[in-house]
Amino acid sequence: MADEVYMDIPAVRDMAKGFGTIGEVLDAVAKVLDGLATLLKVTAFIGLVGGYIVLQFIEMIKPHIEQMSEKCQELMQDLNKSVDAYERGDALGATRFY
């Protein structure tokens, strides 16, 4: 009985969908931050120093948001591949997260 593996396929698919949604939202946030950074560069050019400070903050956090977006997308793909392997009976693919 200990060698038996069970996966709640709909639950894992829902988890994958959730990570995919999070990844898409973070990607959209990164794009908005990019637009704000461009706007703040223009305002800094015309003399608004506060805009430059906010620009520095945005440029500091944007790479982290992009990285989290990529990781969530990767997790979604890994979960879906694991479920597909489990459904096919592929022992190697189904044990990806051991």
Q: What does it look like?
A:
The protein has 98 residues and is mainly α. It has one domain. Helix content is 83%, strand content 0%. The protein contains three helices and no strands. The longest helix has 40 residues. The protein is rod-shaped and about 65 Å long.
Helices and strands in order:
Layout: H1 9-45, H2 49-88, H3 91-94
Question: Which short descriptors sum up this protein?
Answer:
98 residues, mainly alpha, 3 helices
pLDDT averaged residue by residue: 84
Anisotropy-based shape: rod-shaped
> Strand content of the residues, in percent?
under 5%
N-to-C order of helices and strands? HHH
- If helices are DSSP runs of H or I spanning 4 or more residues, what is the number of helices? 3
Structural class, judged by helices and strands?
mainly alpha
How far the N terminus sits from the C terminus, by CA atoms, comes to 18 Å
Uncertain regions spanning at least 5 consecutive residues? none
Q: Quick one: biggest sheet?
A: none
Helix content: over 70%
Gyration radius, rounded: 20 Å
- DSSP, total strands: 0
Structural domain tally? 1
Provide a short characterization of the protein structure:
This protein has helices spanning about 10-45, 50-90, 90-95.
